[in-house]
Amino acid sequence: MNKPQITIKDIARALNVSPSTVSRALKDNPDISQETRDLIHAYAREHNYKPNVLAVNLRASRSNTIGVIVPQLVHHFFSCVLSGIEKAAAEAGYNILVAQSNESYEQEVKIVHSFLAARVCGVIASLAKDTSQYDHYQDLLNNNIPIVFYDRICTGLKTERVVVDDYAGSFAAVEYMIQTGCKRILFYGAAPHLEITKNRRNGYLDAMKKYKIPVDDSMIMLCDTRERAISITPDILEGPGHPDGFFAINDETASGILYACK
């Protein structure tokens, strides 16, 4: 059976000194004599004393932990991003606290509030699909907690962002399809209020416009999951004016299209 972790009070009781003396000695406070400091350090080492990190953080009013919000870990993209964050944080001496919003605004708000309570030193976040209000993130900024958004970003707050050029990537992909002969390219997008959707849709539209290919409302659809792509694509392919190309908002949707086209 593991021995219970000793505390500052245990050390103080064993050495017949006050807990405040032990606490200051462990921090090498010069107000405590060198002899007493050496005695307390030796006893702490001998009994494998470990400081209570939570208590230290509470006193310091800020932890050495970064909160990370992931929409869904099951997505390969987000799991890869998380792996990179974890590696970079560890190299810089930080811990990470990971939470999934599961694409829910309400869950995202709860996570942010829990991060505030945990006194994280910063937050790295990608927005849930249905997040269109950002007061919870403003709460972080009001508490001097910096935010870095990635992939799905918020443009309404002054924060750092890590994104790819969604517009240029979309334009290049659609232009390539047009140059290979596609004329009726459907756009499978995500929630229209998301910046990633806006930028990729604009890239799609501008590429079609460049080659004078008309686009009607039926060519732009909300489809951002594998399941929905598998569900709607067969009927689209069998209907009148069926497409000869698809632009998928993400890899999961693309895999659903490929499955439906088999």
Automatic annotation (TrEMBL):
This is LacI family transcriptional regulator. InterPro entries: HTH_LacI (IPR000843), Lambda_DNA-bd_dom_sf (IPR010982), Peripla_BP/Lac1_sug-bd_dom (IPR001761), Peripla_BP_I (IPR028082). It comes from Bacteroides uniformis. SMART domains: HTH_LACI (SM00354). Gene3D superfamilies: 3.40.50.2300, lambda repressor-like DNA-binding domains. GO terms for molecular function: DNA-binding transcription factor activity; transcription cis-regulatory region binding. CDD domains: HTH_LacI, PBP1_LacI_sugar_binding-like. Residues 6-60 form the HTH lacI-type domain. Keywords: DNA-binding, Transcription, Transcription regulation. It comes from the Bacteria.
